[in-house]
Specification:
Layout lengths: L24 E4 L5 H14 L13 H9 L5 E8 L2 E13 L4 E11 L8 H15 L4 E4 L14 E2 L5 E4 L7
Parallel strand pairs: 4-5
Antiparallel strand pairs: 1-2, 2-3, 3-4, 5-7, 6-7
């Protein structure tokens, strides 16, 4: 019940303002999401035909949790979902370029489940990576094509013949 209907006239607030955006929603990984992230990583590894590791699944979890959630943060990850169904993920780490004299975010992996490809999931994950890089004051987002990152086409990015890319966010400091 609106106690003050005169303060919010119905003709001034478009209904579309309150409707949820269609399509996948990308959120940064929380501690509660780590199991989902690991399941997506396992699918990614299977799809890329990476060799199965002899390392126990729990090995490295402490380091992962520290990198993702304890200051200073050294890693970031995002999960794309639609109606709570995980569709894909992206993960990145921070680096520093001596030549460019600035920090960059390195896209370590990007995976979208084949059942959800072609639905703007990859673009939304990349937008979250770019937004985080800008918030951190990074000069660029870098990636290398390989088993962890499929060939990417990113507007404004420079991609070499091997598929390695750089998306410049800011100009490096002049030398």
């Amino acid at each position: 019940m609106n106690l003050f209907p005169a303060l919010v006239p119905r003709n001034r607030v478009p209904l579309r303002m309150f409707q949820a955006a269609a399509g996948p929603v990308v959120t940064r990984v929380s501690r509660q999401d780590v199991d989902v992230l690991m399941a997506l990583c396992d699918l990614h590894g299977q799809a890329a035909q990476l060799p199965v590791s002899d390392i126990d699944a729990q090995d490295g979890m402490l380091e992962l949790m520290e990198a993702l959630f304890e200051a200073p943060l050294r890693a970031w990850a995002w999960i794309a979902r639609e109606r709570e169904t995980p569709m894909g993920y992206a993960a990145a780490t921070i680096g520093y370029s001596l030549l460019e004299r600035g920090y960059y975010l390195r896209l370590e992996s990007l995976y979208v489940d084949p059942a959800h490809r072609g639905r703007d999931v990859e673009a939304r994950l990349l937008a979250s990576v770019r937004e985080t890089a800008a918030q951190l004051g990074c000069i660029a987002v870098h990636w290398q094509q390989g088993a962890q990152v499929s060939p990417l086409r990113v507007e404004g990015a420079r991609v070499d013949a091997a598929g390695n890319g750089t998306l410049r966010l800011a100009s490096p400091v002049a030398s």
